[in-house]
């Protein structure tokens, strides 16, 4: 092997000299400053390092190229071309794995077919029994098919020229119209006159022809059948299997399908929670190749336990890769790469607590538990408590801090969205309550103005409207229209106003003000509309509704 146990020991404790400690503190400061809303941006200056250990993190990658083969027998028309001597009488005598097929350039997936030389042999076409002809699929050997003109009846409708219009489809007619007779300088003078016009012929309906009885079909001469257009009346067509050559040559081919798969395993002596975070931040450039081995003619050995540190892991990974081969597949070649990178474990004290973090070769920091995470956990508990107490303003800000402190965890984003929805609901509750109270208070005003006072434009005649059965419902319709419009206005976004108000009472009050303002503006708008336009419309509607009753009353009075 290219490495040994002594050169890459997993645990190597480092000396805590001044330069090393300063470098670690600077890396921790850079990491802490990069986290938004972090209360400890100078975390590295406030820690006391207890221990520093260099760990070796190994990454083992396995790539496997699978090869699947199957023998297929196909056929094609035999056109008297020369064939090689027969070696195989059928697919059962062919072993696909005895043939040396081209080796792929690398790992990948593809499908290809390879002809087996010596498997070609000629036989009589079984579809046409060696005649080169097959029954016509259109007439089924009957040589004829129904006539499309008469649909097999042999008779068609005969037409003759219309005698009334002489085949033109139009006849002369006369009608009374107003014609211009002159102009007296101020207006045009007209009078009624009989004018000659062309009208549609009533006998043929404008077609120019009329039915003249049934006659023999001019296409099939009354037979009802015509020669088949597919086979030209012969009843047979060229065999589609052998193309009329009467013989087929059969051959075998190897259908090959290549696919590749990759596996990756890590070896490092740290807790699982720390490893999940550390694995994702280690850059590819941090790793150094330690060993590469493989087999160009099959699988690598299953027992690789002799590899230092990673042997058992790699051996299990290889065994699972070999067991993953599908039916009819073999491993064409595979390769194992072992790479490693040093990881520095730092144990430190901060404000009476003991913590651990890991630093990679590219100075990236990973910590499943740190003063920052402890602050985030306390902040999360405080945020949930604030939500329960309806202190949504502070809870919304804390949820935003949690989102960034947690590395943009979607759960905290969902929490912030839920809090914002509750804040928006406060405005909705205030607005709805205000609309209910204002609608009760405004109802007498609506009834007085729209039902009793009825100040309208002087050009509108109210006669017929005030006496209609619709008149008592007019104030209610106006009020419902104003409430519906106020409800729609209340539920606009309002530039996220609800997230800027620090207390629930302010949000409820803001919603009530928006609803009251909207209802007031809509009330004034409806009053203006009522004064200008709507009475005329309601008057017309009342007349339409009263029209049947007036008709019935008029008939009754006329009779009795």
Descriptive keywords:
single chain; 560 residues; alpha+beta; nine-stranded antiparallel sheet; two-stranded antiparallel ribbon; 9 helices; 17 strands; 28% strand; disordered N terminus
Question: Care to describe what's here?
Answer:
The protein has 560 residues and is an alpha+beta fold. The chain is built from nine helices and 17 strands. Strands 1, 2, 3, 4, 13, 14, 15, 16 and 17 form a nine-stranded antiparallel β-sheet that branches. Helix 4 (371-388) packs antiparallel against helix 5 (392-405) and helix 6 runs antiparallel to helix 7. The model is unreliable at 1-6 (pLDDT under 50).
How many DSSP H or I helices? Answer: 9
The poorly predicted ranges are: 1-6
- Secondary structure class reads alpha+beta
Report the biggest beta sheet as strand number plus sense, adding barrel if it closes: 9 strands, antiparallel
Question: Percent of residues in helical segments?
Answer: 25-40%
Radius of gyration, whole Å: 47 Å
Order of helices and strands: EHEEEEEEEEEEEEHEHEEEHHHHHH
| Strand tally | 17
> What is the residue-averaged pLDDT?
85
How far is it from the N-terminal to the C-terminal residue, by CA?
124 Å
Q: Which shape, going by the Cα principal axes?
A: flat
Approximate strand percentage: 25-35%
């Amino acid at each position: 092997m290219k490495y040994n146990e002594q050169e890459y020991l997993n645990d190597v404790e480092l000396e805590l000299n001044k330069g090393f400690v300063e470098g670690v503190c600077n890396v921790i400061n850079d990491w802490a400053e990069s986290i938004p809303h972090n209360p400890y941006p100078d975390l590295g200056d406030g820690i006391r390092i207890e221990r520093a250990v260099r760990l070796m993190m190994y990454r083992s990658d396995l790539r496997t190229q699978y090869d699947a083969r199957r023998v297929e027998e196909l056929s094609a028309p035999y056109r008297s071309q020369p064939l090689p001597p027969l070696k195989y009488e059928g697919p059962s005598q062919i072993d696909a794995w005895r043939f040396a097929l081209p080796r792929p350039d690398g790992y990948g997936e593809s499908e290809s077919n390879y002809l087996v030389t010596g498997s070609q042999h000629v036989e009589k076409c079984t579809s046409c029994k060696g005649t080169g002809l097959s029954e016509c699929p259109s007439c089924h050997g009957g040589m004829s098919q129904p006539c499309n003109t008469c649909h097999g009846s042999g008779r068609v409708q005969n037409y003759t020229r219309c005698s009334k219009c002489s085949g033109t489809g139009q006849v002369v007619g006369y009608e009374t119209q107003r014609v211009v007779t002159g102009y007296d300088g101020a207006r045009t003078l007209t009078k009624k006159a009989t004018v000659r016009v062309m009208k549609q012929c009533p006998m043929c309906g404008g077609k120019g022809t009329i039915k003249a009885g049934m006659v023999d079909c001019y296409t099939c001469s009354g037979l009802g059948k015509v020669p088949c257009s597919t086979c030209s009346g012969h009843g047979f067509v060229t065999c589609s299997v052998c193309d009329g050559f009467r013989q087929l040559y059969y051959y075998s081919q190897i259908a090959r399908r290549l696919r590749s798969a990759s596996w990756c395993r890590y070896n490092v002596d740290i807790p699982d929670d720390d490893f999940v975070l550390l694995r994702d931040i280690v850059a590819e450039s941090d790793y150094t190749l330690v060993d590469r081995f493989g087999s160009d003619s099959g699988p690598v050995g299953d027992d690789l336990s002799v590899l230092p540190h990673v042997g058992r892991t790699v051996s299990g990974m290889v065994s699972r890769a070999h067991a993953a081969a599908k039916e009819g597949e073999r491993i064409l070649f595979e390769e194992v790469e072992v790479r490693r990178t040093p990881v520095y474990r730092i144990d430190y004290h901060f404000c009476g607590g003991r913590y651990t973090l890991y630093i990679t070769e590219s100075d990236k920091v990973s910590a499943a538990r740190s003063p920052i995470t402890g602050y985030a956990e306390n902040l999360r508990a405080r945020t949930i408590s604030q939500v329960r107490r309806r202190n949504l303003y502070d809870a919304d800000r804390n949820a935003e801090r949690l989102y960034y402190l947690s590395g943009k965890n979607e759960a905290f984003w969902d929490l912030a969205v839920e809090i914002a929805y509750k804040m928006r609901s406060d405005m909705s509750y205030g607005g709805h309550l205000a609309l209910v109270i204002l609608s009760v208070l405004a109802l007498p005003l609506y009834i007085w103005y729209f039902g009793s006072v009825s100040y309208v434009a002087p050009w509108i005649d109210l006669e017929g409207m005030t006496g209609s059965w619709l008149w008592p419902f007019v104030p209610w319709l106006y009020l419902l229209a104003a409430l519906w419009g106020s409800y729609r206005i209340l539920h606009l976004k309002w530039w996220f106003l609800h997230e800027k108000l620090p207390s629930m009472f302010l949000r409820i009050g803001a919603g009530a003000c928006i609803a009251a303002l909207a209802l007031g503006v809509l009330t004034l708008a409806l009053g203006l509309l009522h004064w200008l336009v709507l009475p005329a419309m309601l008057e017309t509607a009342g007349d339409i509704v009263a029209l049947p009753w007036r008709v019935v009353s008029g008939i009754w009075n006329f009779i009795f």
